């Protein structure tokens, strides 16, 4: 059973680790971080890129929602993932004026781009539809990997690295 810090959203395997962690407090996202995130997105993030503008921890949905305060951020969908006790977002579809990204939080790396949508020659609605398709594709991939792992699959880590363009 995982434990989650109510202030920062970080998860731990044991209650002792939760109690002993050095909590930085709630992870608000300020306007500067949002501008940096939009700039990273406009520069053309690729699958496998780490998004440096976001804190290196899962986000509370209301904190992720702060991204929409920027006029160039069109959609943020803080999806719940993990165990039911975990109230943080570890998967984040994000649509900006130039396209869209599906971001996944990996504890050792941070927020990684796992799917992309190019916005060239598309309306905002078309980009949103494509983004939702990419969210569904990523969820199907994660589900397949989890089922294979539960069935005793041995190449799960390698397959996950290939999915996010991280090589063997």
TrEMBL record:
Residues 50-138 form the DUF7964 domain. InterPro entries: DUF7964. It holds the Pfam family DUF7964. This is DUF7964 domain-containing protein.
